Amino acid sequence: MVALALVHFPTSFFKTLVDHEVTVELKNDISIKGTLKSVDQFLNIKLDDIQVLEEVKYPHLSSTKNVFIRGSVVRYVHLPGAAVDTNLLEDATRREAAQQASKA
Question: I need a labelling partner for 72 at 20 to 30 A (CA). Which of 10, 30, 45, 62 fits?
C-alpha cells in the first residue's frame, strides 16, 4: 500500500484510480476504506461501499455506505500498490520538480 500526501499530485493522477479501493485518512484520525468513485480539482473525494477501519471507536459511521469527503480534511490517501502507475507518478514528480526549479 502506498500513502500519498495530497498536496503536490495532480488531480489527473487520482482520476486514474477511480473504481479502485483506497483508504482515506482524515485529519481527525478517522480512516475510511472504500471504492474511489470521483475526485475533483479541490481533491474532494467520493467513496462507495465504505468501511471505517476503527468501527468500534466510531460506531455512528457503521451504517454509512457512501461518503463525500471535503479535500481540506484529508491527511493521506493510501493506495493499493498494484493500482499505482509508477511511471506516470515519476513523470508527474519530475515535471513538478522542473517547474519549481524554473521558478526559483
Answer: 62
* Average pLDDT of span 67-83: 90
List for the chain the helix, strand, coil content (%; round to 5).
30, 35, 35
Rounded CA separation 48/33 (Å): 9
User: What pTM did the predictor assign?
Assistant: 0.74
Model confidence at 5: pLDDT above 60:
no
CA–CA distance, 36 with 20 (Å, rounded to integer): 6
Order of strands across the sheet that contains 31-39:
2-5, 74-79, 21-26, 31-39, 45-52, 67-69
